[in-house]
């Protein structure tokens, strides 16, 4: 079968779906999407007609919005080929699960869901992946724990965090290849890092510690929607590590507003438990979860932010 996958490009949840797809099927094309350009990427395949050449079209860790959602539902050639697996609150708010091909679930009996865990369940039920393969099962659970933050809030398990550190070391394509090669060769072994992987992880941990400390010394404080925001210009990959640093060190802010010009996204993370950053992101034209959300940076906003950053550094 010929498979086309659209998935989120920014983290191990999006990458986990690519890896599972490659493990389950022989012929796979995939498109790594940013949070806010999925509909545009799908439109490209519609416009050139290539979307009709695939047996299965998958959307994971993202969701179809209108008018794309109903367009697919009304397309007799596509509606039975499309499968969407997502876990974001915003998707439920927009009622993007109203058609049978769209599975959007925030939690189940195992805890909070992620795109990889929902997709894995479907693959196992369809017998595309062996449910008895312990290493794949472990990989999916590690991905779920990190993406839902249960590695910290429930299990106090550092391994999921180390998995995402490894991802930041090798990048999207490097991570896909590394994990695919690791998982395809095993039968029933538990998931463990190799000596080389541990070396990458330990070196990166030290680097993250130094970078995050530097970022934390350059926080702007601003009132946004009646809440105290800690605003920082960052590289996108350090958004969650900086958030954790703020939480552990009791920084005086309600939420963090993390501006990643390199990625064109503002990330919002709650520092106080009772703050819902999804609502803040939605007010800024974004979406996401209650504790972690994001909004796109428009071209005009990027120019203004760069100007602000330059002025703050006193560059003439």
Description:
- The chain is 45% helix and 20% strand.
- The protein contains twelve helices and 13 strands.
- Strand 8 and strand 9 form a beta hairpin.
- The mean pLDDT is 92.
- The chain folds into two domains: 2-144 and 175-187, Rossmann fold, CATH 3.40.50; 216-312, Diaminopimelate Epimerase, Chain A, domain 1 (Roll).
- It has helices at 12-24, 38-47, 68-73, 89-93, 115-125, 134-147, 150-153, 159-184, 195-216, 239-248, 277-283, 299-312; strands at 2-8, 27-33, 56-60, 82-86, 102-104, 107-108, 111-112, 220-224, 227-233, 255-260, 265-270, 287-288, 292-296.
- The protein has a six-stranded mixed sheet with strand order 8-9-10-11-13-12, sandwiched between helices. It has a five-stranded parallel sheet with strand order 2-1-3-4-5, sandwiched between helices.
The helicity comes to: 40-55%
Radius of gyration: 20 Å
Structural class: alpha/beta
Total strands:
13
What's the mean pLDDT score? 92
Domain count: the total is 2
What is the ordering of alpha helices and beta strands?
EHEHEHEHEEEHHHHHEEHEEHEEH
CATH class (first level) name of the largest domain: Alpha Beta
Query: Residue ranges: pLDDT <50 for 5 or more in a row?
Result: none
| C-alpha termini separation | 58 Å
Strand order of the largest sheet: 8-9-10-11-13-12
What is the beta-strand fraction?
Answer: 15-25%
For the sheet with most strands, the description reads: 6 strands, mixed
CATH architecture of the largest domain: 3-Layer(aba) Sandwich
At CATH level 3, the topology of the largest domain is Rossmann fold
What general form does the structure show? globular
Number of helices: 12
């Amino acid at each position: 079968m010929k498979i086309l996958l659209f998935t989120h490009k920014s983290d191990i949840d999006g990458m986990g779906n690519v890896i599972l797809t490659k493990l389950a099927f022989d012929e796979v094309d995939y498109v790594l999407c940013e949070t806010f350009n999925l509909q545009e990427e799908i439109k490209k395949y519609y416009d050139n007609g290539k979307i009709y050449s695939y047996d299965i079209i998958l959307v994971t860790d993202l969701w179809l919005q209108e008018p794309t959602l109903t367009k697919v539902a009304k397309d007799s050639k596509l509606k039975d080929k499309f499968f969407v697996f997502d876990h974001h609150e915003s998707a439920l708010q927009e009622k993007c699960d109203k058609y049978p091909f769209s599975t959007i679930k925030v939690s189940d009996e195992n805890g909070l869901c992620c795109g990889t865990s929902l997709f894995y369940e479907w693959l196992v039920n369809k017998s595309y992946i062996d449910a008895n393969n312990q290493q794949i099962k472990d990989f999916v659970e590690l991905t779920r724990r990190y993406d839902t933050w249960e590695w910290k809030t429930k299990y106090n398990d550092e391994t999921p965090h180390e998995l995402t550190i490894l991802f930041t070391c090798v990048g999207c394509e490097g991570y896909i290849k590394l994990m695919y090669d690791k998982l395809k060769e095993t039968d029933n072994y538990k998931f463990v890092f190799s000596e080389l992987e541990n070396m990458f992880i330990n070196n990166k941990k030290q680097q993250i510690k130094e970078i995050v400390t530097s970022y934390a010394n350059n926080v702007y404080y601003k009132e946004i929607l009646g809440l105290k925001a800690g605003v920082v210009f960052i590289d996108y990959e350090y958004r969650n590590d900086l958030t954790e640093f703020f939480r552990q060190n009791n920084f005086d802010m309600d939420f963090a507003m993390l501006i990643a010009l390199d990625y064109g996204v503002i990330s919002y993370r709650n520092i106080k438990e009772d703050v819902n950053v999804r609502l803040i992101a939605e007010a800024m034209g974004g979406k996401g979860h209650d504790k972690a959300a994001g909004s796109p940076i428009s071209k005009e906003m990027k120019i203004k932010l760069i100007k602000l950053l330059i002025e703050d550094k006193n560059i003439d």
